[in-house]
Amino acid sequence: MHVFTPIAHLYAVAKLKDPETSRRYELELSNRFTVLQEDLSIEEKWELFSTSVKASTETVIGRRGGINRERWISDRTWSLIDDRKEAKKRKVQAYTRAKAQAEAVNYRKLDKKVKKSCKQDKKDWI
Questions:
Q1: 31 lies in the same domain as 82
Q2: What is the pLDDT of residues 27-85, one digit of tens each?
Q3: Is the pLDDT of residue 119 over 70?
Q4: Quick one: pLDDT at residue 10?
Q5: Are 70 and 56 in contact (CB under 8 A)?
Q6: Do residues 106 and 73 make contact, with C-beta atoms less than 8 angstroms apart?
Q7: Do 3 and 9 meet the contact criterion of CB atoms below 8 Å apart?
Q8: Nearest-angstrom CA–CA distance, 70 and 91
Q9: Domain range spanning residue 15?
Q10: Where would a tag sit more exposed on the chain, N or C end, judged by fewer CB atoms within 10 A?
Q11: How many folded domains does the chain comprise?
Q12: Contacts (Cβ under 8 Å, ≥6 apart) of 100
């Protein structure tokens, strides 16, 4: 099961207000959508659509940078933060006790990585 994350929370969508960036994004998306084929199942089409939008967004507009206080956080750390958010959602949605415990362990590992990476980023920034 895929957990949906709004794209506005991950990427710098405010850059799309610039007409040049918006045009480049539109062109990138149209190029990637030519891959969509008619003989695929709905699930395969959705997966292809989703990855196309994410890849185009990553390529053209990039990840969000946070507010001014968070400018020192690197893209690598933002990626870890996003992974940790997904792990927390999976942990909350776990149905069985064993699965919930496994997801909790995964979340704790990612949480430690995020904290360690944030410390390193701040140290590098200072």
A1: no
A2: 888 887 776 666 778 888 788 888 888 888 877 877 666 666 677 888 788 889 888 98
A3: yes
A4: 67
A5: no
A6: no
A7: no
A8: 26
A9: 1-64
A10: N
A11: 2
A12: 91, 94
The pair of three-digit structure tokens given for residue 110, joined into one six-digit string = 């990612």
Q: Is the pTM of this model over 0.70?
A: no
The answer to whether residues 78 and 26 belong to one domain is no
pLDDT at 67: 63
Who's near 31: CB < 8 A, 6+ residues apart? none
User: Do 33 and 78 fall into the same domain?
Assistant: no
Burial class (CB in 10 A: 0-12, 13-18, 19+), 42: exposed
Query: What is the spatial distance between Cα 52 and Cα 89, in angstroms, rounded to a whole number?
Result: 23
In angstroms, the CA 22 to CA 46 distance is 23
Rounded to an integer, what distance in angstroms lies between the CA atom of residue 26 and that of residue 85? 28
Q: Which residue has 């958010």 as its token pair?
A: 85
Report the C-alpha gap between 51 and 40 in whole angstroms. Answer: 15
